[in-house]
Specification:
- By secondary structure, this protein is mainly β.
- The strands form 5 sheets. A 9-stranded antiparallel beta sheet has the order 13-14-15-16-17-21-20-19-18.
- Strand 13 and strand 14 form a beta hairpin.
- It is globular.
- The two termini are about 30 Å apart.
- The structure holds MU-OXO-diiron and calcium ion (3 copies).
- MU-OXO-diiron (FEO) binds next to loops.
C-alpha cells in the first residue's frame, strides 16, 4: 500500500457560535491580522492607498490588486518567518475602485479607468516577513521578488494549443503569447515549487455581438457588452496595439490587424508562475484544458508514476476534470539543479491527457479521455467532430458534452489528502437542478455538498462517495443528510484545502447568484470549518443511495467552525507556513471592512469605510501551531 501512516491530528478549538458582524471572528487564544489589503504598495513607484479611490492605473501596477482569492506561501530558504505570498485577484468592485464608481462617457469607458481595472486584476507576488516582536507579518516594500501580473501582462502560451490557428492574433501572429490573465480564482501548486493560477470567469470580459461559434457560445462570451465594457475604450488616442479593441472578439472582416477573434482563445487556462524567479514569464498550460478553471490540485506524487491534477469547471451542470502527465514523476525534479522550474513545468504540464469525470450510481466512476480517438456517445470520434488535440482543448466543454460526463452542482476547489491521496471536491450549490444524479442527489441544491474520490493516475477508474452535505441544521433529514447542527451548519462550500497534518479546511461563499438567500447564510456569515477526515478506503460501508439520510457520521461529527468572515464577504484562499504557526486566508468582497487605523482584523469599524479585500494572517497568541 502507498498509504503512509502519519499521526492523526486533533482539533484544539471549540466550534465558534454564529456571528454576523463587520469583523473577523477567531477562537479564543487566536489573533487575526490584516495583510496586503487591495492597494498595498509593493514598491516606491506606487502612491499609498487612498481612501477616496483616487489611486491611478499606474499605482495599481505596483500594488496588490483587488478581490484576493487563491494563494500560496512559498518559503524563502524553508522559513516560516519569511516567504513569498502569491495571491490571485479574481475580479473587481468597480464602485470601490473608482472615486464615484465606473463612468461611461458617450457610451465609452475612459481609458484610464479601464487600465486601472485591468491592473487591479491578476496575481500578486508579495515578499512578506514576520519580524515584529509579536510575530506579525509585513510586506517587504521594494523587494525584488515583489511582482504584479495583470490582465495586460505578456504571458507565454504553451502546450498543444500554442502556435495553433486558434490563438494567432495581431499581438502574437505566431500564437505563442497572450496579453494578460483574467479572473484568477483558485490556485494550485506543483511538486517543483511553482504556482498555478486558475482563470475562471474570463469569458464574460469578451463580447461578440454577432453569431458566436461554438467555442465562444459554450463558454459564455458576452453577447451585448463585456462585463466591464473594456471594449468601449477601443479607439482612444492612447490605445496601444489593440489594448482595448481585443476584448471585442466579433468577426470584423479580413483586416488582419483588427481581427481579434482569437484573443479570447488565449484565456481559460491554468497559468504557471515561478515566484522564485522575478524575471520569469508566466506560462499558460493549454494541455490542462480550457474552461472556467476554479482551481487546481495536484494528486499525491508517486515516483515512477504520472502526475495527476484535478480542476473543477465552476458553472451549473459543468464537469470536473483530471489532467495526467505523460512524463513519470522523478523526485529529483522537485529541486531542479539549474533552478529552471518552468522547464520542469514544460515536462509535466505540456504533454499529457485531459479527462472528464463520469460518476456512476454504484459508487465507482470513470475518467473519459478528451483525445482525438475517443468515441463520443453517438459513435463518432472527438477527432472527427473537432479535429486535432488543439481543437478539442479549445472546445473542452463541448467535447466533454459528447462523452457522457456527469453534470455537477458547480464544481469549485479540489483538495488532496497529503497522506492517503483521497481527492475532495466542493460543489457549491445549484438552485436550478431538477434532475438529480447519484453524485448530485438533491434537487434545488441551495446548500451544496462535498464529493470525494480515490483514483490512481494510471487508471481510468475511481471510487467515490459524498463526504458531507451542506444544510441548515433545522432542515428535515432528507435535506440535512449529514445531520449538521447549529455548531457546524454550512452552505455553499467553495475553497477547500488540506494542510500537511491532514486537517481539511472548508471555506464558504454564499455571496453570488443569490447565494445569500438560504437559511444558513441568513443565520451566519461565511465561515471556515475544519475536520480531520477518515480515509475513503477506511469506510466499512459506502452508502450512496440518494434516498438515504445521513450518509455517515464518523467523518463529519467533528466538523468545527474555526473562523467567521465580516458581513457580505466570502472566505477564500488558504496558505500556511511550514511550521503551521501562521495560517493565511483571504477576505473577498467585504461590505465595510477592514476598520481604518488598525491591522486587527477582528475590529468592526464604527463608521463607513471603503471596503478592501485583504489577506488575514491567523496566529495563536502563544505562537504555537494553528488548529490543534
Ligand atoms: Fe471564483 Fe467559482 O469561484
Ligand atoms: Ca471560488
Ligand atoms: Ca467567489
Ligand atoms: Ca464561489
Amino acid at each position: 500500500s502507498r498509504i503512509q501512516h502519519a499521526p492523526t491530528p486533533t482539533l484544539g478549538f471549540a466550534s465558534l457560535p454564529a456571528a454576523m458582524t463587520d469583523a473577523c471572528v477567531v477562537p479564543p487564544g487566536y489573533r487575526a491580522t490584516v495583510l496586503g489589503a487591495w492597494g498595498t504598495p509593493l514598491s516606491g513607484q506606487a502612491a499609498p492607498w487612498r481612501s477616496d479611490g483616487g489611486n491611478s492605473s499606474s499605482d495599481l501596477l505596483h500594488t496588490t490588486g483587488m478581490h484576493h482569492d487563491g494563494m500560496h506561501y512559498f518559503p524563502l530558504a524553508g522559513s516560516s518567518r519569511e516567504g513569498l505570498l502569491v495571491v490571485n485577484h479574481e475580479y473587481i468592485d468597480e464602485a470601490a475602485l473608482h472615486p464615484d464608481g465606473p463612468t461611461l462617457v458617450d457610451g465609452r469607458r475612459p481609458a484610464e479607468e479601464v487600465r486601472k481595472e485591468i491592473n487591479a486584476h491578476g496575481v500578486s507576488v508579495m515578499h512578506i516577513r514576520s519580524t515584529q516582536p509579536d510575530g506579525r507579518w509585513d510586506v517587504v516594500l521594494n523587494s525584488p521578488y515583489n511582482r504584479r501580473f495583470t490582465s495586460a501582462t505578456t504571458m507565454t502560451l504553451s502546450g498543444p494549443v500554442a502556435g495553433s490557428r486558434w490563438v494567432r492574433t495581431p499581438f502574437a501572429p505566431d500564437g505563442k503569447a497572450v496579453r494578460g490573465t483574467n479572473n484568477n480564482c483558485g490556485n494550485g501548486t506543483t511538486p517543483w515549487g511553482t504556482y498555478l493560477s486558475a482563470e475562471e470567469n474570463w469569458a464574460m470580459c469578451f463580447v461578440n455581438r454577432g453569431e458566436q461559434p461554438l467555442h465562444q457560445a459554450r463558454v459564455g462570451v458576452a453577447a451585448q457588452a463585456g462585463r466591464y465594457q473594456w471594449e468601449t475604450a477601443a479607439g482612444d488616442a492612447s490605445e496601444v496595439a489593440g489594448e482595448f479593441a481585443r476584448f471585442d472578439v466579433s468577426e470584423r472582416g479580413t483586416d488582419a490587424l483588427s481581427d481579434w477573434r482569437n484573443e479570447v482563445n488565449g484565456f481559460g487556462y491554468l497559468v504557471e508562475i515561478d515566484p522564485y524567479d522575478p524575471a520569469s514569464r508566466a506560462v499558460k498550460r493549454t494541455a490542462m484544458g480550457r474552461f472556467a478553471h476554479e482551481a487546481a490540485a495536484c494528486g499525491k506524487p508517486v515516483a515512477g508514476e504520472p502526475l495527476a491534477f484535478y480542476s473543477g469547471d465552476d458553472a451549473r451542470f459543468e464537469y470536473v476534470y483530471r489532467y495526467v502527465s505523460d512524463a513519470l514523476w522523478d523526485p529529483r525534479d522537485a529541486k531542479p539543479a539549474d533552478g529552471n522550474h518552468l522547464a520542469v513545468g514544460h515536462k509535466y504540464l505540456d504533454h499529457g491527457t485531459l479527462y472528464v469525470a463520469r460518476f456512476d450510481a454504484d459508487g465507482s466512476g470513470e475518467w473519459l479521455a478528451l483525445t482525438p480517438p475517443t468515441r463520443t456517445q453517438d459513435g463518432r470520434t472527438l477527432g472527427e467532430v473537432f479535429g486535432d488535440l488543439a481543437a478539442i482543448l479549445i472546445h473542452t466543454r463541448a467535447a466533454a458534452d459528447l462523452l457522457g460526463a456527469t453534470p455537477m452542482d458547480r464544481p469549485e476547489w479540489t483538495a488532496v489528502h497529503p497522506q492517503n491521496g483521497d481527492v475532495y471536491l466542493t460543489l457549491t450549490n445549484n438552485n436550478q437542478r431538477t434532475e438529480t444524479n447519484a453524485a448530485n442527489p438533491r434537487a434545488n441544491n441551495v446548500s451544496g455538498h462535498i464529493v470525494r474520490w480515490h483514483d490512481e493516475p494510471g487508471s481510468h477508474r475511481f471510487v467515490w462517495d459524498v463526504f458531507v452535505f451542506g444544510s441548515p441544521a433545522e432542515a428535515e433529514a432528507a435535506t440535512n443528510r449529514s445531520a449538521l447542527t447549529a455548531a457546524n451548519q454550512f452552505a455553499s462550500p467553495d475553497g477547500i484545502a488540506f494542510d500537511e497534518r491532514g486537517i481539511l479546511w472548508i471555506q464558504t461563499d454564499n455571496g453570488i447568484d443569490d447565494g445569500r438567500n438560504n437559511a444558513v447564510a441568513k443565520a451566519i456569515n461565511d465561515q471556515m470549518l475544519a475536520v480531520v477526515p477518515q480515509a475513503l478506503s477506511a469506510r466499512t460501508e459506502r452508502r450512496i443511495d440518494p434516498a438515504l439520510p445521513a450518509i455517515n457520521s464518523a467523518n463529519q461529527a467533528d466538523l468545527r467552525r474555526f473562523f467567521i468572515a465580516p458581513n457580505e464577504a466570502e472566505i477564500t484562499g488558504f496558505a500556511y507556513t511550514p511550521d503551521h504557526c501562521t495560517l493565511f486566508l483571504n477576505i473577498q468582497h467585504p461590505a465595510n471592512w477592514p476598520a481604518s487605523g488598525t491591522t486587527d482584523a477582528t475590529v468592526a469599524s464604527a463608521q463607513a469605510v471603503r471596503p478592501r479585500s485583504a489577506t488575514v494572517a491567523i496566529q495563536k497568541h502563544d505562537g504555537t501551531p494553528v488548529g490543534v
